[in-house]
Specification:
Layout: H1 4-10, E1 14-15, H2 19-36, H3 48-53, E2 56-57, E3 62-63, E4 67-69, E5 75-77, E6 82-83, E7 87-90, E8 95-97, E9 102-103, E10 108-110, E11 112-114, H4 118-122, E12 125-128, E13 131-133, E14 138-139, E15 144-146, E16 150-151, E17 156-157, E18 162-163, E19 171-174, E20 179-183
Parallel strand pairs: 2-5, 3-6, 4-7, 5-8, 6-9, 7-10, 8-13, 9-14, 10-15, 13-16, 14-17, 15-18, 17-19
Antiparallel strand pairs: 1-12, 11-12, 19-20
Length: 186
């Protein structure tokens, strides 16, 4: 692993203060700008540059503007995924969102974990933790999903919840930190 990008992709400590990573973030910002400034009549579809940026994206994904991501290249969106207005995905790690999943307005997904040592953090040292969201999940508005979390199929995350640990399939979680309220048996 010689480059910071390779380290990031491998889930090792890397520095985000790197020319190659900055170039990737600039490409993402340009695609995001194109998407977020589309004519209102085309809102919800997807700007071609944003579609091309994603690691993979189904044809029927619906992304409302505004939207923001760090790189885009680490995002994989399944069929019928819906991202409401104001979603932010800081995808230094892999972010996979399964088919039929809906994210409410202002949902945030954070893969980066900054170093706990202030001097190393100041040097841009961080590690990327993946986020996996299953199929047919509903994430309420303003929820925050932290890196390293897996959310199982059919789960519900209540609005404003902060998800710091895995959510089982069929579970409903709420709060900060999110706690399980209910688990579907169907």
């Amino acid at each position: 692993m010689s480059s910071e990008r390779d380290k990031m992709a491998a889930g090792a400590w890397y520095t985000c203060l790197d020319a190659e990573l900055e170039a990737l973030r600039l490409t993402a910002r340009e695609a995001i700008h194109q998407h977020n400034t589309m004519s209102p009549g085309t809102r919800g579809t997807m700007a071609p540059a944003l579609r091309a940026l994603f690691g993979s994206v189904a044809d029927d994904v619906f992304v409302e503007a505004p939207f923001h991501c760090s790189y885009g290249i680490n995002i994989r969106l399944g069929a019928r995924v819906y991202l409401n207005a104001g979603c932010t995905i800081l995808d230094s790690g892999a972010v996979t969102i399964g088919e039929g999943t809906m994210l409410g307005p202002g949902v945030q997904i954070y893969c980066a974990e900054h170093h706990k040592d202030a001097a190393l953090r100041g040097q841009g040292l961080e590690i990327a933790r993946p986020v996996t969201i299953g199929a047919d999940v509903w994430i309420g508005g303003g929820a925050i999903i932290l890196g390293g979390v897996t959310i199982g199929d059919g789960a519900i995350v209540g609005a404003g919840s902060v998800v710091t640990r895995d959510v089982p399939a069929g579970a409903t979680v709420v709060g900060n930190p999110a706690r399980q309220l209910y688990r579907s048996t169907t």
